[in-house]
Amino acid sequence: MTPDGENSSFNLTDLVQRSGRWLCASGPESDIVISTRIRLARNVVGFPFMSRADDDTKKQLVDTLRSTIQATEIGRNYQFLNVEELNELDRQLLVERQLISRELAQSSGPRGVMIGNSEQTSIMLNEEDHVRMQILNSGLALEESWAEIDVLDNALEERISFAFDETLGYLTACPTNVGTGIRVSVMLHLPGLRITREIQKVHQAAQKINLAVRGLYGEGSQAMGDFYQISNQVTLGCTESELLDSLAEVVPNILGYERRVRDLLCRDNKSQLDDQISRAMGVLTSARSISSEETMHLLSSVRLGVNLGMVPDIDIATVNELFIQTQPSHLQKISGGPLKTPERNEARAAFLQQRLKK
Amino acid sequence: MKKCRRCSKPATLHITEIHQGNAVAIHLCETCAREYLEDESGQPSPNPAADLAAKLEALVADDDEESVVRCSNCGISFTEFREQGRLGCPVCYDEFREDLMPLLENIHEESLHIGKRPLRSPTQTKDQSRLIQLRNQQREAVEKEDYEAAAKLRDRILEIEATLRPNSED
Predict the structure, then answer these.
(1) Please, which pLDDT band fits residue B59 given cuts at 50, 70 and 90?
(2) CB–CB contact A51 B84 (8 Å)
(3) 3-class SS at B62?
(4) How many contacts (CB atoms, under 8 Å) link A and B?
(5) Which residues from chain B sit within 8 angstroms of residue A47, using beta carbons?
């Protein structure tokens, strides 16, 4: 069922033809740091959390929040999508683009998302909390991202009273988010550390200062394509700046490790590395059928090759895009409709050839 | 077979006590029953019947209270929260504060928010009453010799006091 009415203003088919600004690899350290993401969890005073809200209450929340946000200067250009009305493919598409969480896609009842220009910001309505706003920037951009989301939060706060306690800070449905309600995540591409089996260093460095390491799609997801997400776990008892500082401290160390092993690989195992990258390109450009998992794995090698100057004529932004566009829902959307796994694998192979062959 | 209401082992002792006109059945295993009928000192009570009655009353009251503690705003019980991991509404934080604090300290290793505060300035009256609250908490922390918490509270108090000074307008 194609959603009509309010969702028609935002064309999801057009969406797959372009990519979010955060994928363009223009930010600092974007050879290794894919993106910096910050999200804030907020709830509206006088409303129950999701577990105690009936559909009428949820609808009231979505309607009120939507119109209030669109009435602000900053929120005027945000496009609203009624997630409840979207079909599963479209919901999954938004998950793949990192615009909504799996939880929002899979839950039930009135809920939505408001998407800002260039998909840099999005505001989920009725996820685990009433409001989950996020900013997604290319590269390592901690301070800049905080400044931007802080402005958005302040703009919303001028019109919405968020539940706040003098001692406990912003009140959230789950006590793990109470206080600042912030999660800062830096997404890293670390093929070198994986190849040299030194990825454990990342876990050690992060754990020492209470940071979590997760895969591409957050909690519970595997480290597909050598992507690792580093984020804060604690939200109470420290300031937002302190949390940003803890990431600003650990991420350069990890970048240092990754760059060092890349140098070593180039010095001591250049021909082996060259072989691996060329084979990856070979499969990606000539396979007739390829799974999402294999694609991620091979694209990771190609991405490393591009960074090391070993793959001519492809830029990092293209490889970044391919990671997202070869995901199942993107592929189906690009192909014009639902496809079963075997057809999807064929469509993926064809798509990769078209994008990678010169 | 009935289970002991204290430890869930099979109950071997079944007592029916008429208390204030109500029959109360209680099932205990041998160990719990012995503990139940003894004083805290471990000595057999000089008046086991009266003792039992008092303890039964406490037990029944306990049970009632447990099933009744619900957030006055949204109706969720603490047990339901433990099962789902999600609270029912912002007021739950007030209603379950005592039970939540150890949990929060366990998760965050801290219990006092020091990050961003809403820009909508709380009125000075609110700050004044907040200061009273914080000073009480600080005194309690010192009494408990939790100097780290006390120092944090002191900082927070100084911060609020600074904003309340008449020349802090600029």
Answers:
(1) low
(2) yes
(3) helix
(4) 111
(5) 89
Residue of chain A whose alpha carbon sits nearest to that of B102: A175
CB contact under 8 Å between B118 and A176, yes or no, is no
Task: Identify the band that residue A218 occupies on the pLDDT scale cut at 50, 70 and 90.
Answer: low
Most confident of A136-150, B22-36, B63-77: A136-150
For residue A111, what are its two tokens? 């809920």
Confidence (pLDDT) at B41: 44
* Euclidean distance between CA atoms B88 and A251, whole angstroms: 37
Q: Treating both helix axes as pointing N-terminal to C-terminal, what angle do A341-356 and A292-307 enclose, rounded to 10 degrees?
A: 20
Asked whether the beta carbons of B10 and B4 are under 8 A apart, the reply is yes
Residues in chain B with CB shorter than 8 Å from the CB of A182 are 115
Q: Does B118 reach chain A within 8 Å, measured CB to CB?
A: yes
Helix (H, G, I), strand (E, B) or coil at B70: strand
Per-domain residue ranges of chain B: 13-108, 122-164
Look at residue B169 in the predicted model and tell me its pLDDT.
Answer: 39
**What are the chain A neighbours of B90 within 8 Å (beta carbons)?**
43, 45, 49, 163, 165, 171
Rounded to the nearest 10°, the torsion over CA B158, B160, B163, B164 is: -100
Exposure b/e, B91-105, CB count within 10 A at least 16 = b? bbbebbeeebeeebe
Chain B residues within 8 A of A45 when measuring between CB atoms: 90
Structural tokens at position A283:
């499969």
Under the banding of pLDDT at 50, 70 and 90, the label for residue A231 is very high
* Partner-chain contact A236 B113, CB within 8 Å: yes
pTM, two decimal places: 0.77
Position B65 pLDDT exceeds 80: no
pLDDT tens, residue by residue, B124-148:
445 655 666 777 788 888 888 889 9
Mutation site for B-interface testing, chosen from A171, A180, A209 by largest number of B Cβ within 10 Å: A171
Which residues 6+ apart lie within 8 Å of A41 measured at CB?
A128, A129, A131, A132, A170, A172, A177, A181, A182, A183
- Cβ neighbours of A126 in B, within 8 Å: none
Tokens describing residue A202: 């990342």
- CA-CA distance, B5 to B15, in Å (whole number)? 12
**Mean pLDDT for chain A overall:** 91
Per cent of chain A over pLDDT 70 is 95
Cross-chain Cβ contact A238/B114 below 8 Å: yes
What pLDDT sits at residue A14? 78
Domains of chain A in start order, with CATH, are: 12-189+213-229 (3.30.590.10), 269-356 (no CATH)
Phi, psi of B67 (to 5 degrees): -80, -10
User: Predicted ipTM?
Assistant: 0.87
Looking at the complex, report in whole angstroms how far the Cα of residue B101 sits from the nearest Cα belonging to chain A.
10
Smallest CA–CA distance, residue B91 to chain A, in Å, is: 9
Q: Taking a C-beta distance cutoff of 8 angstroms, is the pair B87, B81 a contact? A: yes
Residues in chain A: 358
